Prior knowledge:
Layout: H1 2-26, H2 33-43, H3 47-56, H4 61-83, E1 90-100, E2 103-106, E3 109-113, E4 116-125, H5 128-131, H6 134-150, E5 161-163, H7 166-171, H8 188-199, E6 204-213, E7 223-232, E8 240-241, E9 243-252, H9 256-260, H10 263-282, H11 315-325, E10 336-346
Antiparallel strand pairs: 1-4, 1-8, 2-3, 4-6, 5-6, 7-9, 9-10
Amino acid sequence: MVLQSVFHRQAISLSSACFCGRASYSTMQKPPICLVQELRKLTDVPISKAREALAASNNDVEAARRWLEKDLAVSGAQKAAKVEGRTTREGLISVCVLSNGNLQRGAGIASELGGVRAAMIELNCETDFVGRNELFVRLAADIAHTAAFITEHDSSSPYFIRPCSLDVLGDAPLLSRSEPHMRMPATVSGSIRDLIAKVGEKISLKRAVTVVHGPFREEATVLGLRLASYLHGGGTSGFQGRIGSLAILGLKTPRLPELMSTETFVRDLEKLERAIGRQIAGFDTLSVRSTPDDETSLYNQPFMMLGGEGANETVRSALDQWSRRRGMVEDGAEGGIEVLEFAKWTAGQDVD
């Protein structure tokens, strides 16, 4: 009887334990896959992290997004500290052109040439694998877009292309290039830390320049500004590359508004701008003009990237001929197109 009583109590205990175990297991349900997918579209986190966030937030997507922001901030800061001493020789140059001096038209007002607004940045990482990662490519484009958008015109500077403060840029809210009206939750520096947490490599913003200049209103009939840019070695996006160039061009002619209103002239001008950007990026170009025997001077180089009418001429001569053929230079008057300044970068190169 004693043995039966003991056995009976053990059986009840075991049965109760097994029942509780089954009850506990049955209440631990995985978040629905549709919510996991929705959260990943918003945050680009791995499936496991999305499930963890939803589980911690009772399957509330917005609460899970906030949970991830806090988690990324902590883990990103920790990983950034761990990788701080590493070298970043890979990465991308990204260019964003928001305004390129096109003719502006408005109801009830005369047409006038617009200003120029653009930026070029270099974002570095440790490996080429991360440099080709979609998240890295998108971040580089967004940072360039942010730099071009937030920069104000500085009338005190004698230069068109000016350095952009990395501290100011880092503290700015990140603006999406693909979805400019979407509110981004983090700053530029915060977004870099978040990406470090996701890819596990050091990522650093090395440098940035901007071009912001309004139209020459007092001389709007004769002066205009345009931008030329080119990126090489960055796939098919056209916004990033291993080598990048950004140049500011000056156009001078009394006929400028008239010419800029014609599709043919604008199309030819855009082709010329691309050729100038390619020329700067493709050759060992260090200055716009120099002594006649300096082959690193843009104006002394054969304009190979223009092809056709300018391939056998120097850039200087080709620009003169191009301007005359399109009616920018009249007899006895100054006019034409000039390269005023340019910047050329290669990702990973040493900077003085």
